[in-house]
Amino acid sequence: MERFTGEQRAFCVKAYYKNGDSCIVARRLFRARFNLHDLNQCPSETAIRLWVKKFEASGSTLNAKPTGRRKSIRTEENVAEVAASVRRDPQQSSRKRSAELGLARTSLRRILGKDLKLHPYKLQVVQELNPNDHHLRRAFAKTMLERFENLNNILFSDEAHFHLCGYVNKQNCRYWAAENPKLKHQRPLHSLKVTVWAAMSAKGIIGPHFFENERGQGITVNSARYTAMLRNFFFPQLHNFEGYNARTWFQHDGATSHVSNESLTVVKEMFNGKLLSRRGDIPWPPRSPDLTPLDFFLWGYLKSCVYANKPTTIAQLKDNIREQMSAIPQEMCQRVFTNLRTRLEECFRLDGAYLNDVILKK
Fold first, then answer.
1. Most CB contacts within 10 A, which of 179, 184, 194, 261?
2. Section 115-129 average pLDDT
3. C-alpha to C-alpha distances, 190 to 122, 163, 164, 187, 328, nearest whole angstrom
4. Parallel, antiparallel, or unpaired for β 193-201 and 204-210?
C-alpha cells in the first residue's frame, strides 16, 4: 500500500519542474492543493526527488506492479518518509508516527529496525546538578581514587521509603479475555510505607532498621531519631560485622538529620577522622546518588524483589525486606564496590558530570 496516489505524485513532479526544480515549493503547493493543515503531512523532499528520478527513468512515479509474491511495504519512498519523520521528531511514539505516515505499526517497526538500523532507547531520569556540583563531584572522585587503593573498607549508608502498594509496571500488565474487563489498579493517595535504613560495604550489609514508633507506625527521620538509631542499632551491630575494623570509614549524605551537630558528634565518636559527609573529613558532594551503592544498586534491587509476592500488610512488607536483604551474598556486594571504583573513574573523566549510563551489570 502506497501512502500517496499517482495523482498526488504527478502533482509534485509537475510542481517541481514548474518552480525551478524546487522540492520546497512543491511541498508548499501540495499542502495548498490538497488542503492539508500540517506540512509534515506532505511528501518529504527526499520522496519528491525519488519520484522525479523514477519519472525520468520510466515515465511513471508509481512502483511496478508485483508479478509474483506480494511486495513489501518497505519501499524506497516509505523508508525515506520514515527517515524524514524521525529527523523531525526522534521522540514521537510509534503509534503516532504510524498514524501520521499511514503505515501499519509492524511495517513501521521493520523500516525503523531493518532499513534504518535504529533502536529505541529509554531516556534516563537523573538528579539535576547545580553549576558548582560538577567541580565538587570531580574533586570528590579524585580524592577517593587517590586516597583509597580499594574501597572495601568503607561503609555507605542511606534511607529509603518502601510503599505497601509497591509499584505497577503497566508495560507488563495484560489481561487476556474475550471482552475488555476494564480492570483498574487502585492506588491510595497516601499509601502506607516504611522507612528503611541500611549500611553496606564490600563485606556485606548491616540492616535493615525501620524508623517507626512504639505502635509500628512509620515516622519521619530527624536528628534525634537518627542519633538514637546510631547508638542503639548501628554501633552494636558493628562489633559483630566482618567488614568493620579500626580503619573503617563511614559515609552518609548531606541530609539535615545526618549533618546536625548532634548527629555528627555521635558519628565522629566511632569514626573519628574517617567520615565521608558534608562537614566530614572528605566532603560528600551533593546530589550524587549515582556514587553511592545503596542508591545505584541496593534500593532498586530490593524493590525488584520484595513486591514479588504482593505483600498486603506492613508486617509482610518488612519481612520481605529483611529476607531479601539477608539473602544478598557477599560476592554480590564485592562486585558492587568494584563497580563503584569504575563509577568514580568515570565521574572524574567526565569532569563531574552525571554518569552517562548505568555501569553495573548483573
1. 194
2. 67
3. 29, 9, 10, 9, 31
4. antiparallel
> What Cα–Cα distance (Å) separates residue 81 from each residue in 46, 98, 101, 150?
8, 11, 8, 53
CATH 3.30.420.10 range(s) for the chain read 133-349
Exposed e or buried b per residue across 225-253, where buried means at least 16 C-beta atoms within 10 angstroms of its C-beta: bbbebbeeebeeebeebebbeeebbbbbb
pLDDT at 342: 92
Q: What is the pTM of this model?
A: 0.62
Per-residue cell: 135: 567541580
Between the two ends of the chain, the Cα-to-Cα distance in Å is 45
CB-count exposure of residue 26 (10 Å: 0-12, 13-18, 19+): buried
| Chain-centroid distance, C-alpha 83 | 26
Q: Is 162 helix (H, G, I), strand (E, B) or coil?
A: strand
Q: Which amino acid is at 298?
A: L
Distance CA 37, CA 166 (A): 45
The CATH number that domain 133-349 falls under is 3.30.420.10
**Over 60: is that where the pLDDT of 34 sits?**
yes
Contact 2, 102 (CB under 8 A): no
